[in-house]
Amino acid sequence: MTTFSHLLRRFYEETPDRVAVYLQHAGQEDLPVTYRDLLKGAAGYARTYARAGVQPGDVVLLILQHGIDLIYSYFGAVLHGAIPAIMPYLTEKLLPERYRSDLASLLGITRPAAIITYPDFEQEVRAALKEGDSVRAVIVSSEADQPADPDFESLPGMQRRAEDIVLLQHSSGTTGLQKGVALSHQAVINQLESYRLALHLTDEDVVVSWLPLYHDMGLIACYLLPILLGVPLVLLSPFDWVRAPYRLMQAVSRYGGTLSWLPNFAYNFCAQKVRDRDLDGIDLSSWRAISNCSEPMRWESHQAFYERFKDYGLRYEALTTCYAMAENVFAVTQGGIDAPVVVDEIDREGLQIERVARPGKPDRDVIKMLSAGRPISSVRVRVLNEKSQDVPDRVIGELALQSDCMLTGYYNRPDATKKAFLDGWYLTGDFGYMADGEVYVTGRKKDLIIVGGKNVYPQDIEQLAMDVPGIHPGRVVCFGVYNEAAGTEDVVVVGEVETRDLQERYKIADQVRQVVTRGSAIALRHVYLVDPPWLIKTSSGKTARLANRDKYLAEMKEQR
Amino acid sequence: MNDISTTLNEYIANEILKQPGRVINPDEPLISGGIIDSFHLVDLALFVEDTFGVHIDDSELNADTFDTLNQLVALIQARKP
Questions:
Q1: What are the chain B neighbours of A452 within 8 Å (beta carbons)?
Q2: Is there a contact between A93 and B42 if contact means CB atoms under 8 Å apart?
Q3: Distance from the B57 Cα atom to the nearest Cα atom in chain A, whole angstroms
Q4: Which terminal CB of chain B, N or C, has fewer other CB atoms within 10 Å?
């Protein structure tokens, strides 16, 4: 029987000097962290948790940024047998009150026993606590025990069973924070095993990532997979990357990086914002699989990325694809490893109106669909119609899956867990089709906007916008509109207002922007204020958003 | 309003906010106020470099270095060759 602690112990005993993580920070020397360092640092935290009264099986919430404390406290929780969950850190644009209320709503459902944060954030965390809640200790990183040799015989993490929950993953926003995906040791280890095979992982591999660890792609593919399978990881700060995307290329070149995972927007972002002078002497020929994952994948984005970096050794075959979700730990499918990613040219109208993926004809408008690849070995995929019946190849339906790496449940949310399954099949909420064994994802059933790989629940944004004075109560709608140049969705808010005064309207629009950004850390692309009655109301929020989106797009077209 | 300020205002309004004609209050917090999100900071830095020949290092792209239009203008003036 194997758990995370058993895997870590083996590295500590057999290859202690091997570097697990090269930690990068802008303006600092890279910090190599060996397995010995990792386990000693984690053992210090394990002792800290014990001292604070955290019991094995308790949840500990980590509110830390990219850095060594986050790594040590994470694996410290594992060694102690506690369940780590990472909460995004407060950013400068998010309103502290808003952050506090998000934190409070997470605390209410997830009920962690302890919170770990930095000394200068302690007050902020304490402000979200209430009498009688679950939090018994707020631990500041500076007071954690010094790294120490782990005593595996006494570490409670060694006593955990494979079916015990090992970690929680949350997605962002008020809605996402209330649904923690609980995963068992067994589920994660099963996923890593079959994903390892799908990727043909070898000793030569090096993972390079800037992804945040509170996101499943960052946490599983670019943190747990390399560390638990013994693949060196070069870890950049998301904060540094967004200000200097060339750092990703420099890290790949310097360390001979072979594997990365990126959300679609990052292909466009890198292609547009990296200057030649920052690529001096860069060699990207080691990169063998850059997997596009976590938001709709675009053929155009792959082309732009390839064109920009091909002169620096980037190989076209390195552009791969993946379909993943936290509920399945991570990967459902992987494409582009055994053979180039299949590009399926289908009829646009057929897809949008008849809901079929008919091969395109020369005289018709076509869409180039990137295949997400084939299901990895532990996963089975079905495509279901509205009556939950299987549909033939090339017919669009909801993707459903079964695997040996499914979530245990949404933590403390049996209601939500039950709703997610149908006869033992997990309903993904994604639309797609299958053709020749390859999976294609075409859209979402779930009412969700994905911006730069981050999930945004429109109801959260609408709730915020409704509070702005001048906006008609309840007369707001939020939806996503694809932005070709950015390779991701833009978030649009439409609101009904009484005033016809243009200056007044500008002011209201500004306020909506500000309230939304400070309340959700999402920047709105367009606030469109309209005379009532404009909004189309229906019984379901989702159809209303789609209908209003169509109306908005039609009006934008007219105005152009 | 001086030339630098006008040029920056136009760039931010047209290219980042996509609201041509929008006048930005020179003391309005742009970064901490959520007007410019982190994805556009690198664009702004590249624009400043191309237009004014002033380099803003990526480690400086935060509200501590500049937050308002006035602060950005002052930074450019101080560093202008």
A1: 39
A2: no
A3: 9
A4: C
Q: Which of B 19-48 lie inside 8 A of A, CB atoms?
A: 22, 31-35, 37-39, 41-43, 45-46
Cα-Cα-Cα-Cα dihedral of A402, A200, A66, B59, to 10°?
A: -130
Kindly state whether B18 is in contact with chain A, defined as any CB-CB distance less than 8 angstroms.
yes
Q: Tell me if A92 and B31 make a contact (CB, 8 A cut-off).
A: yes
E strand spans, A351-405: 366-370, 374-375, 379-384, 397-403
By C-alpha distance, which of B40, B37, B21, B18 is closest to B29? B37
Structure tokens at A430: 């994604």
pLDDT (tens digit, 0 to 9) for every residue of chain A, 560 residues total?
Answer: 699 999 999 999 999 999 999 999 998 999 999 999 999 999 999 999 999 999 999 999 999 999 999 999 999 999 999 999 999 888 777 788 888 888 998 999 999 999 999 999 999 999 999 988 999 999 999 999 999 999 999 999 999 999 999 999 997 777 778 889 999 999 999 999 999 999 999 999 999 999 999 999 999 999 999 999 999 999 999 999 999 999 999 999 999 999 999 999 999 999 999 999 999 999 999 999 999 998 889 999 999 999 999 999 999 999 999 999 999 999 999 999 999 999 999 999 999 888 999 999 988 999 999 999 999 999 999 999 999 999 999 999 999 999 999 999 999 999 999 999 999 999 999 999 999 999 999 988 877 898 887 888 898 899 899 989 999 878 999 999 999 888 999 999 999 999 998 889 988 998 998 888 888 888 888 899 999 989 988 766 666 888 899 999 999 988 87
Q: In whole angstroms, what is the distance from residue A274 CA to residue A269 CA? A: 8
Residue A556 touches partner B, C-beta closer than 8 Å: no
Which residues in chain B have their CB less than 8 angstroms from residue A518's CB? 33-34
Using only the alpha carbons of chain A, give its radius of gyration. Answer: 24
Q: Domains along chain B?
A: 3-79 (1.10.1200.10)
CA distance A150 to chain B (A): 37
